[in-house]
Amino acid sequence: MSAEQASFLLARDSLLANEVSSGLHRIRRRGYQRYVLWKNFIDFSLLWKRRWFIIAMFLGFALMTAPTPAGLTHQGQIVLCMSLISTILFASEAVPLPTVPLLIIVGEVVLLGIDPTVVAQSLMTDSVLFIMGSLMLAVAVVKQRLDKRIAWWIVRITGTNLYAISFGLVVVCGLLAAFIGEHTVAAMMLPVGVTLISLTSNEPTKVRNVAAVLLFSICYGCSIAGVATPSGGARNAIMISYWKSLFFNPEDPATNRYIMDYLHWALYAFPMFLLRLPFVTLLLAWTFKPETTDMTRSIARLRTQVAMQGPMRGSEWMTILIFGVTITAWVGFSQHLGLGTIAIAGTAAFLIFGLVRWEDINAGVNWGVIWLYAAAISLGVEMKATGAAEWVAHSMLHGMQAVNANGLFPFNFTISVLTIFVSNTMTAGAAVAVLAPIVLNTAVASGHDPLATGFLSAISSAFGYLTPAAQPAFTIVYASGYLKASDFMKIGVRMMILSFMVLMLLAQYYWPQLS
Amino acid sequence: MSLFRRNVLPDRQEAAIQKTVSHLRAQRRNRFRILACIDGTDESFISVRKAARFGASDECDIIILYVRPIDTGLHSGGLQVRLARQNMMESGFELPGVSHLKRALDILKAEGLDVSDWSREVQNQDAWGDPAGDNKIEYKGPTGRSVVLKLKTAPDVAVGILDQYELGPYNLIIVGAPSRWRSEFRSLFDSGVVQTIATMAPCSVMVARKQNERMGFLFAIDGTARSMQLVRRGAVLAHVMQRDISLLSVAPDEAARPAAQEAVANAQALLKAMGITTLEARVAVGDVATSIVEVGNNYGTIVVNDERRTKMERLLRGSVATEVVRRAATSVLEVR
Questions:
Q1: Is A477 helix (H, G, I), strand (E, B) or coil?
Q2: Which residues lie below 8 Å from residue A296, measured CB to CB, with a gap of 6+?
Q3: Which has the closest alpha carbon to A284: A226, A211, A223?
């Protein structure tokens, strides 16, 4: 038989399809996937995945049983060890993150011997209620699908030039994020960015840089405004909570300044948004050099889409009204009613008017985050109560004095760099929750204003620009699949330098005037 | 009684489902099914091109797979990423991966496999609680041939690919060149996607590379019964693709040279009996994996047989197949 005559059937004569399931136990028939996952839980790889958990636990317990340093109570030593374990677990994500707050709660009762009711009460503060309320509000707002209308309002003002649209997006996203939280705006505006990209070209790879400019405009619009008001992000609410719990004394009127209201926060932090605003589009244009700047075609198609949606519906007007009332209440009544109560009331209004279903809120909110912030704040309060924060603050102060970092600028510089470093290893809220008791006590010990130092720390925690996981808005926009992780690094370094310089200028020249 | 009925009905349904699945699998075993995995990088699309060339005949089905990790994480500041994703989908936008699958379809067309006139069936399935789940478009040709584009959700890419095998079975999995390949020890804890697939897949695996794409096959044989199977089955594939076949047997030292020569002679005889001609036959002496890689880099595809070594055996004794897959500059087909 010659080669030409040879005739074969590939499925029979060539590579055989191995039947893995035949004759095997039922559990294997259910799928290789489950088999592999099941194996993950019994083989050594799980131990490897949990290595940082094991290391953190060993290290923590070794330090707990070590002799207590001079000037520190044993309770303080335990709190510091718990903070160290939490920080390692936050940064390494060795266990699912909601596990960390659960462990903190158990640790407070078992290791510190605090009454369980006291621990439970310490978990729910107005700030935690506020974080919970704003997340529920976020789901309600995102569900209203106002994105295309907002985009149309933007381009009606900016025209069809890419840079003008980018600037418009930064301004609008920023103004919205300042009040309703950066994650809300990112989730809401992401379809707008993707609409503009997809209407520009059917082949996204051909307009990659245009896509980067548009999507980063949303990212940075949200990011630079997230610090502008208390409702911009969880970190702000956490810092407000720390000021109150650490420094406010009802019997001392001089400490009333530590009850931070909405307007006062904006007075300190809103300039951070305004001063960076003009630079974002410039940096994006410089970094990504878009393939085209003419968006006429995509804007025309966007207009058609908006026209097809018809006029504004009653539900959309009601959404805007409820949100307007909520923001007004935050600005005018937060000192009396609390930020959290107002946020909860806003959510209730959305539910009453049938604008959102509870099932959607339940599915859209990551409740683990609320546990995380609640437990972190509770641990921070314990750091103060046991004297641990003061001890660390004094140690830090000695270190700073040793390198002559006593003046306002070196102090601000050190605190900011420390916060940026920590916030690049974990989420900003967690970074503030871990660091705030220490930096605020360091400020007191070194004679600096805890308010300004708190702002410095809260704002610096928003400078995690280098990875998609560094900020909520980044994570959400990155999930669209249009950006690469390396893009975040490319623009992030420039943005970080710019933000750091603006912050140092404010801390040096503007905030002392307010104090 | 009602309790009894409730118990019986699912069992009957289960039996019916099992019967349907067995029937489907039996049908599929008569087809040559290729699973080409892509991740959106240029390197990964070589796997689609290879699949089109391997699967040029009517008895082949091609399944293009993109595995999308589940949307999870606390990094989105407490707002679930799925909310943003849902928002995008309600606006009519594609999931990440859809554009890559479309590009794969274009590549198939460029290779002569145009499915635009074929009948089309779309399926969606819940998976891992993800709002988008698994999505599949199946194109059915007039001769019964099918091309499937599958967007799968899984906690991990390798797990997704292995799970897809379970839904098969497949004759061949094609993956792109690995971007990272851990040592045998590190791979116990943390191995790359291609490494996991190459070591764990139940069927033959090809790691596709761009170099020498249109050149012939080199069969690396060692004289064992398993390597003779490699020759028999690999030769059919090469013959159908009209590629030249060359043979290489590497002796670890001079003393083993006669055995290597005998292995080559046996393989030649087998191919002759099958009616397939061999382009050249070589015997080399030296480190087995190194020699195969050095010689094989001048060919289109190196064909090696999997030794079926366990993780522990690979750790202690190493594996020629794994070494060749890792170090070769050209495509490697690991036959099982």
A1: helix
A2: A160
A3: A211
Nearest to B79 among A97, A183, A468 (CB): A183
More confident residue, B182 or A236: A236
Contacts of A222 (CB under 8 A, 6+ apart): A173, A174, A177, A182, A183, A185, A186, A189, A471, A473
Q: What is the pTM of this model?
A: 0.61
CA distances from A141 to A219, A350, B80 (A): 18, 9, 14
Position A179 confidence tier, pLDDT thresholds 50, 70, 90: confident
Partner B contacted by A458 (CB < 8 A): no
Q: Is the pLDDT of residue B6 over 60?
A: no
Residue B74: per-residue pLDDT: 47
Burial of A436 (0-12, 13-18, 19+ CB in 10 A): buried
CB atoms within 10 A of CB A34: 15
Segment B50-56 long-range contacts (CB within 8 Å, at least 24 positions apart): B50/B174, B50/B206, B50/B208, B50/B331, B51/B108, B51/B174, B52/B107, B52/B108, B52/B111, B52/B112, B52/B113, B53/B111, B53/B241, B54/B172, B54/B174, B54/B237, B54/B241, B55/B113, B56/B112, B56/B113, B56/B240, B56/B241
pLDDT digits (tens, 9 = 90+) for B79-102: 666 666 666 666 666 667 787 888
Helix/strand/coil for A424: coil
The identity of residue A479, as a single letter, is: A
Q: Which residues of A are less than 8 Å from B274 in CB distance?
A: 1, 6
**A445, exposed or middle or buried, with CB in 10 Å at 0-12, 13-18, 19+?**
middle
Omega before A311 within 30 of 0, i.e. cis: no
Give the pLDDT of residue B72: 52
Q: Is residue A4 over pLDDT 60?
A: no
Report the residue of B22, B70, B76, B301 to disrupt the A interface, i.e. the one with the largest count of A CBs within 10 Å.
B76
pLDDT in tens, B246-280: 999 999 888 888 999 999 999 999 888 888 888 88
User: Torsion angle, CA of B180/B183/B186/B188, rounded to 10 degrees?
Assistant: 100
The neighbour count for residue A386, using CB atoms within 10 Å, is 20
Closest-CA distance, B297 to chain A, in angstroms, reads 23
What amino acid occupies position A380?
A: G
Which percentage of chain A shows pLDDT scores above 90?
Answer: 11
Q: Which chain B residues are closer than 8 Å to A481 by Cβ?
A: 95-97
Distance, CA of B203 to CA of B218 (rounded, Å): 20
Order of strands, edge to edge, in the sheet holding B119-127?
B119-127, B130-140, B146-154, B60-69, B32-38, B172-176, B204-208, B331-335, B301-305, B217-221, B245-251, B280-285
ipTM: 0.70
Q: Quick one: pLDDT at residue B5?
A: 41
**Quick one: pLDDT at residue A18?**
67
Q: Which amino acid is at B275?
A: G
Q: Label residue A42 by pLDDT band (50, 70, 90).
A: low
